[in-house]
Hints:
six-stranded mixed beta sheet, D-Maltodextrin-Binding Protein, domain 2
Amino acid sequence: MICETESSKVTRRRFAAGGAALVGGLGLAACGIGQATPSGGNATQTGCHSRLEMVVAAGPGAARYESYADALKSFTRPNCSVELTVVPSAEQLAKVTAAVTAGTPAALTEFPPGALRQWLASSVLAPLDDLFKRDKLSQNDFPAAMWKYMSFDNKVWLLTGAEANADFILFWNKQHFKEVGLDPEKGPTTIAELDSMAQKLTREQGGQLERVPMKPWDVYSIGNSIQGWSYAMGGSFYDEKKDELTFTHPRILRAVEWMADWAKRLNYDRVQQFQTSVAIQGVHFFGTGRLSIAPLVSVNLRDVLKNDPSIQIGAGPLPGEAPGKPGAVAMGGWVVGALAGGKQRDEAWDALKHIGVSDDGTTAIARRGGIPGYLKSPGLTELSKDPLFKQYVDGVRRAEFVQVGFYTPGGWSSASIQDAIEGKRSVKEALEDVQRDAVQRYADWKAKNNKK
């Protein structure tokens, strides 16, 4: 059981048969119960002997939390309920570890993008490969990148959760393209084309910005920016044969230098000030109509469209530069697994399957704005009917890269790269600092966890 502390309120909400219930003073959402089994699943269900607790890091109102809530409304197992317990992501592993050590773990949990190896090192996850095989699931049911992640060390540890992001898909403002004579139906396929378009799309008067063409250094943080553009340009963060991190890879250097060059061209501080001046609460900068081109995750795209239903948007793969190629996609996202030592293994597995591979569960997630990571999900078919969201579906299907966090279980810091983007130091020096720090963290992590 996850314990509540002074520093962290723990929110709980249960999804159960038989109408609404009240537990500990909290209103718990009632659950519509309808039989739903994943494709290929043929396990015999029995009733739960008690409730299932699922640890999540997003609270009520957040898209990920509501995706789980919606998915679980159609989860059915006689006398079975699932209670969502919210624990902030910064505290999640420590609290889960304490519960597993005490012999009182929750049945299942979500965990952050790229965090599998850290969680395995803490011995908090239960392997699922026997159940995976029993229910006739296959690696072909998942994108190549996701399978590489979920089957680490030749065991299955997880299923996809509420956010199997395709990192990244590019979007552009069609009206901006029309205004400068660009084809609004055609996005860039190469970095050179992107550069040319960005030069035309920049709009300023009297030294003041009126429109920003793009912010390649700000794709959901510096770390995500480095990951996305480095893969697009043929970079690699890890040498698998040597088990070595490679943040100084020449194509990563190229990607960060390109990002830093655009930050200098547009004047980093000026762009930041301009973005603040036109910001709309709860809407991505792209949704203000003052940013022409941006990678977006699906939840933010929905927010943009909700804010301005008339906005004309084009979408396509991320452009590339040799030896990289257009359409590079990394994948991982928030995933779900069963906790070690749980006394409800079969019940937990059924709940995981419902979220990750059932028709009803994955479609509910798609309708909330998430992109299912299960290739047979009807939710993907439904999303493909919309030309914008079809780009996410296509991205999921071709995803081949694992998120950088998977290769850096000891962590890494992008602070030096942020300094380089702001023009405070050279990119080469910044990446050398990142490499030294990441290598030392990785060595320390392996020593602490007895990894070769």
